[in-house]
Amino acid sequence: MNNELRELYQQVILDHNKSPRNYKKLETATNSSEGKNPLCGDHIHLYVKMNNDVVEDISFEGNGCAISKSSASLMTSIVKGKTKAEAEQLFEKFHDLVTGKISEDEDLTDLGKLAVFQGVREFPVRVKCASLAWHTLHSALKDENKIVTTE
Amino acid sequence: MISDAIINSVKNISSLDVLKIREDFPILKQLIHGKPLVYLDNAATTQKPKFVIDKEREYYEVQNSNIHRGVHLLSQKATMEYEKAREKVMRFINAKYLSEVIFTKGTTDGINLIASSFGEKFINADDEIIISHLEHHSNIVPWQLLCQRKNAKLKVIPINDNGEIIFEEFEKLISEKTKFISIVHASNSLGTINPIKDIINKAHQYNIPVLIDAAQSVQHYKIDVKELDCDFLVFSGHKLYAPTGIGILYGKEKLLEELPPYQGGGDMISSVTFEKTTYNELPYKFEAGTPNISGGICLGAAIDYINSIGIKSIEEYEKELSDYAELRLKEIEKLTPIGTAKNKGAVFSFILDGVHPHDIGTILDFEGIAIRTGHHCTQPIMDRFKIPATARASLAFYNTKDEIDFLASSIKKVFEVFA
Predict the structure, then answer these.
(1) What ipTM was assigned to the predicted interfaces of this complex?
(2) What CATH number corresponds to the domain at position A95?
């Protein structure tokens, strides 16, 4: 396989695509939001249970490409237990990562597993796939209750 | 499993010297991600032969001038070339008069023109307009907008699981309220070819005018508007090997005469005072403003190029190629074709088990293969088949059976990544 392609479809991404974590409806959700990528047909429904300022539980359902699905899966895993502000901060850093604003030699440790999305920066049309779940989370946390699109 | 002998026997026949034809298309020589370009996105837009590219260059190098109003030599030359192109289009679709051939920006523009102009004059509250479930968004939204303006209703001919319209349901939809039918000839996302001749005949029994969206057919089959007896027909130049931004609206002269102008401006008038404006004669009544002159001329050149090969030869070869592609794709386990109409063009929409179309598109891109993934501007079709998107390979006469083989083997590679 080509290197750029291998960078994009890393094993962690393929694994989360095949068996997405937190893939269910959360009956106890306090916030929820819907996100769509009209051009490629990605669709995600995000459920969040907030406890004061903390994401106590989070889950998602939906349909999408490997990048958008694994991004949602990894996002839900990583923001669980984080405060709203911490989650927003991660979104910002994640966005910088996939749009190539963070250089390769920068420290990515606080992104944890999210660093596997580094390859996305070589694929400008896939940035919206990777960031759909995050935009939807942003909207759910603000409790905007509107459909988010990345177009 | 289909035997190699059968595949080879199909593969070895060819009615067209494709390798020679490929020499005419400079873009096909390039490498994509280090691999030869395999361009299978022809339903989105076709590549341009050198003959057309040269024409565009020549126009801007030695002819560029505004048309119709100039007395100087360049303007006369440009006007002549532009009007010669109109004549080429007229012959290509076998229209009766030059006045029936209107230059537009493309298919979408042509449909909007009719929806606006015909709608303005002839559609009233509670009237009904019929389209089909196979329409591209461009043949849905202009009619929805019209229906909203006029309080009219949009009726949709349903399709079966193969992606064919259900003719009996169409017949049931017709009533005294039906004032217009707008229908696609060949579906861009499923490849289905509609029985437009039967639809037109049926509609005319009730004196209902019919618009044919020929965006996906005029480059593949001989279109004869007189024989079809359609009232309007629209298509885009860029899917017919010409540049983007140029298209054609054909309309029966008598009907076009009755319609009010679409846009106001220069060229579409015969005299203007602040009190009253009289409109120019056809086709200029519908061509306000400086048109896409080089686009029109290049559309004429593209038609010359197609005629040099012969639309019948193109149709035959593409049929051969499509039959071969169908055979090869059928072999792939875990591939489900979307759109299996009996009468189908050179469009192959499919989904793969466990792999989203977008991922298929990215992986094939790295093999140099350009296909389209998504809903193809036909969301109602995706909803009908309960899928978010498909991967679509669409063929043209410069594609080869070797490229089809490569597509098939590369699809198998997709499964290796997503094992």
Answers:
(1) 0.89
(2) 3.90.1010.10
